[in-house]
Amino acid sequence: MSIQDVVRRTGRAVALVGASLLVGTGVAAAAPAGEDPGVGPYAVYVSQGEDYAQFLGGVVSVCDMEGDGNLVYAEYRLPNNTIGRVTDDNGVTPGCGSVTVTITHLRVCENDIFGDSCSEWRP
After folding, report:
1. How far apart are the first and last CA of the chain?
2. Which SS3 state, helix, strand or coil, does residue 96 take?
3. Beta strand pairing status for 71-77 and 105-112?
4. pLDDT in tens, the chain (123 residues)
5. Other C-beta atoms within 10 Å of 18: how many?
6. Which is it for the CA torsion 44, 49, 50, 53, positive or negative?
7. How far, in Å, CA of 45 to CA of 28, rounded?
8. Is 14 exposed, middle or buried (0-12, 13-18, 19+ CB in 10 A)?
9. Residue burial 36-62, b: 16+ Cβ < 10 Å; e: rest
10. What pLDDT does 35 receive?
11. Residue 85's pLDDT is what?
């Protein structure tokens, strides 16, 4: 069972535990030379306030954890430098937005009264 499956089934408590495990290093592991980061043990975690996005096992997930009514989305950079986006369409209801993709960078954004507040891009 993936972290995304656990988050979808158990909601905020498990999401926060998983997030706290990843947040200590930001990048849990780099892909070994010659290994595709989209399918290898490569992981990235980024946060903006309580909202977060992660890349793990070839899946980008984004989770709205604040309940403030603001749309939360992750932006990711593909190997060809194109920017993609996935949103958490259900707010703080358990379940996160996700997409299977190979990326080079990731950030999480919240559409708030200041425009869009985003984390830094993380490789």
Report:
1. 25
2. coil
3. antiparallel
4. 444 433 333 343 333 334 333 333 233 333 333 344 444 447 999 999 999 999 999 999 999 999 899 999 999 999 999 999 999 989 889 999 999 999 999 999 999 888 899 999 999
5. 20
6. negative
7. 8
8. middle
9. ebbeeebbbbbbbbbbbbbbbebbbbb
10. 44
11. 98
CA angle 61, 71, 89 (to 5 degrees): 55
Which neighbouring-strand residues pair with 44? 27, 55
| DSSP-assigned beta bridge partners for residue 100 | 59
Residue ranges of E strands in 1-123: 27-29, 43-48, 51-56, 59-63, 71-77, 83-88, 97-100, 105-112, 115-118
Q: Scan for tokens 């996935």, then name that residue.
A: 86
pLDDT at 15: 38
